């Protein structure tokens, strides 16, 4: 869908106001709905909406870009969401389902019956159907596959055969291919015979008779070169190509690095089988970084903000349970020193400081390391260096902030030794935090896990238990 | 720089191997350097490198894409980084400086003298110079401005006059403009007379004699339509346009939503003044999400992973200091109940569980809310609904997990009341966590702050102090 097709038929706005206008209208629509929900005269307003406003709403909805409708559907609570969804014309259902988040998609699909689902999916391209497939009921999917032609069916099956994080699962098949032994003039004539070019077409793919990719011809070059030249003279023979088994995150990084808009996908024999486009890569980049934040705190998946309490619980319970275990362990560590605390109750008062600062500092380290790992910036040698640096930062922080808090403890409890133990414990716990902040993500990566996964929960667990043990241990040795 | 210009002259690889080959070569290069640093025979190897390998290295470097070189520079420790940097040909310095992260850029600029800096900057476009300008010494910048022609100087000044997060600061001036009263044939002839088209050109901008934008002509449409048609017949008159004062994050969201590759930027009178491209938007998206993660834990800015210990300290100290204060407050809260702890030391043992689970759960909530706010999905009405949902989740989690830990406490200390207090405290602290997890980011946003800023530090501070107060308070009321 090109941006120039986003025109809203009601809009009399000039181009430069179009965007602002769209935002306003969207806001207005949402407020309307929200207001209705709040109103005292619920029934009256409801009937007004259903008698008068539905027609207006219908017009609004028909005029909105699928992405804007997806945004509105995501921002609305479930009842209003379904009300709007039912007003969306059947032939637009498919593209909107592709735009909404996974969680919202689920809620929309649950509201559709079999014929509606099939009608929606039939509007889509092969890779889009594959994307939707895992959310469709088995019988709908079978019926759908049955209705597709052989090529479409094969493509859907191929796309479904790859993992979600592989290029094969997100590539599309909208390619314009040309031969290298024709002139640019011929290419231009050929393009004119096509009714339209696939979206994002910034280059044509040059293949031989076996569909092996031999080069790419950027449209920019096609336009400025002498039409009498052959494609072979003008084309680039060493474009960036990808394989269906490539990792999408790495592919997205290559798109970022080389400023790509589209790139060909070839099989092991060099045959052209599809293409990747920047819009799919932008989605990958967005999802990757969302996932990183989420996973630090053990949120399993993207949550519909209006998900039921029950669904939210399920999404979050796993790491909370792990957290409960780690908190229990920390508690038992303290339990080992109950005798010391009984004798010097100030220990109970001061111990959370040691644990807390350690946790925060460890989280800072882990944040930096996870990012560097994602960008592939850490080699075995530099890892050692990084660890040394983090330990250096930890020692200094420990001496400075541990010193400050040590003085405070001394003044509060009139006990110099207690202050010294505090400073020492802070420094040691910060060293532990730095070490684990480097090692946890690198270990997760070594075992092929996402280095961000639950990293925040883990580092906090270690700096809590470790901090209590170090502080209470030192106190027991030197003060009791 | 088009991807097809990324060709490495040494590479005899087929297109489909190009990417893999590049990665390998890069790896090899890094390992070489890393190995040298580690070697026992440091001097020997060093001399070998300097006698034999420099020529080879030079060839490698010359063959690398600027983005790949930037990647290598970022992944190398300071000494090696500068060694490689000195091998980079002067005319490539500018584009590489634009590719590296801010922190690494600083380290590279520090190594260059005035003539080198000027030579590097002179290679760049106006908006690129503006991007670099804030890192350049004042005298270099003045000399540079002096050397530019009037148009260039005006563009640089204009770009520098916008904030970093405004479209004006990142737009470029590489536009192809046409008139609407000419035929497509004329446009095609005109393009052919240009030596090359600006990168990412997916549409031509149609302007009138006052340079007011009247529409856009996608190249795709230019290619498939009858050359005898007028531009006015074919062009889209309502493309997405942006203003220089627009927020870049919102602009990036529009690019994502409408799958844009380029878009025109117009002033208040509708005059075309520049364009925004997808590669700049991809950088914005990446930076936004990096910043979100960083700011949760109070990392001030992107850190060079090999930054000196001192620089790292400066980057991290502010929130650690805040954390120290909050930890001290939490400690004083416990101090209020030292008498109770003296009587029942189990309280000291169990209290971190209440605080820890609250912190983790609050972080889960805040993560979700920050994300929804970034996507603009929360309206005043839905905020109330969200709060209700989060409180619902908190009550259930409190009863379930608080119940579990209550039973454990009961069994451990043979004290039913202690178990009940534990369950009640967990539930209340989770409610506090949920409430603050919703309110903190929304409040920050209301005061125009980044909702992610230090949010993790703040929620943990509240659930710590709150958790201790609730638990020890309840215990003092009912158990002591």
TrEMBL record, chains A, B:
PROSITE patterns: CBS. GO terms for cellular component: plasma membrane. SUPFAM superfamilies: CBS-domain pair, MgtE membrane domain-like, MgtE N-terminal domain-like. Keywords: CBS domain, Cell membrane, Magnesium, Membrane, Metal-binding, Transmembrane, Transmembrane helix, Transport. Residues 235-292 form the CBS domain. Its main location: membrane. It is a multi-pass membrane protein. It comes from the Bacteria. Homodimer. This is Magnesium transporter MgtE.
């Amino acid at each position: 869908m090109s941006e120039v097709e986003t025109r809203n038929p009601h809009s009399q706005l000039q181009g430069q106001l179009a965007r602002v206008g769209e935002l306003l209208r969207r806001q207005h629509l949402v407020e309307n709905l929200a207001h209705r929900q709040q109103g005292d005269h619920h029934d009256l307003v409801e009937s007004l909406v259903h008698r008068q406003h539905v027609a207006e709403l219908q017009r609004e909805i028909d005029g909105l870009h699928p992405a804007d409708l997806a945004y509105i559907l995501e921002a609305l609570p479930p009842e209003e969401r379904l009300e709007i969804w039912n007003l969306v014309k059947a032939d637009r259902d498919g593209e909107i389902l592709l735009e909404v988040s996974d969680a919202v998609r689920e809620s929309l699909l649950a509201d559709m019956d079999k014929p509606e689902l099939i009608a929606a999916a039939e509007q889509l391209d092969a890779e889009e159907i594959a994307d939707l497939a895992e959310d469709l009921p088995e019988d709908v999917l079978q019926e759908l596959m049955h209705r597709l032609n052989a090529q479409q069916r094969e493509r859907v099956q191929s796309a479904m055969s790859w993992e979600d994080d592989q290029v094969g699962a997100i590539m599309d098949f909208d390619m314009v291919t040309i031969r290298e032994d024709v002139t640019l003039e011929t290419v231009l004539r050929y393009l004119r015979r096509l009714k339209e070019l696939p979206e994002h077409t910034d280059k044509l793919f040059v293949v031989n008779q076996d569909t092996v990719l031999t080069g790419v011809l950027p449209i920019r070059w096609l336009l400025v070169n002498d039409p009498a030249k052959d494609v072979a003279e003008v084309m680039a023979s060493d474009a960036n190509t990808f394989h269906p088994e490539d990792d999408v995150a790495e592919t997205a990084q290559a798109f970022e690095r080389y400023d790509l808009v589209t790139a060909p996908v070839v099989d092991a024999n060099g045959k052209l089988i599809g293409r990747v486009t920047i819009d799919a890569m932008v989605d990958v980049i967005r999802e990757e970084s969302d996932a990183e934040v989420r996973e630090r705190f053990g949120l399993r998946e993207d949550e519909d903000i209006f998900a039921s309490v029950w669904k939210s619980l399920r999404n979050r319970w796993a790491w909370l349970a792990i957290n409960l275990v780690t908190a229990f362990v920390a508690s038992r560590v303290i339990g080992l020193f109950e005798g010391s605390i009984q004798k010097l109750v100030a220990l109970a008062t001061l111990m959370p400081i040691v644990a807390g600062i350690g946790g925060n500092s460890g989280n800072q380290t882990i944040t930096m390391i996870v990012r560097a790992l994602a960008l592939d910036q850490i080699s075995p040698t530099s890892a050692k260096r990084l660890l040394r640096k983090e330990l250096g930062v930890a020692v200094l922080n420990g001496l400075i902030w541990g010193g400050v808090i040590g003085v405070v403890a001394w003044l509060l409890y009139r006990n110099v030794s207690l202050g010294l133990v505090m400073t020492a414990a802070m420094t040691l716990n910060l060293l532990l935090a730095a070490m684990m902040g480097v090692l946890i993500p690198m270990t997760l990566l070594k075992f092929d896990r996402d280095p961000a996964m639950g990293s925040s929960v883990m580092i906090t667990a270690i700096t809590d238990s470790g901090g209590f043990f170090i502080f209470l241990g030192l106190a027991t040795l030197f003060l009791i």
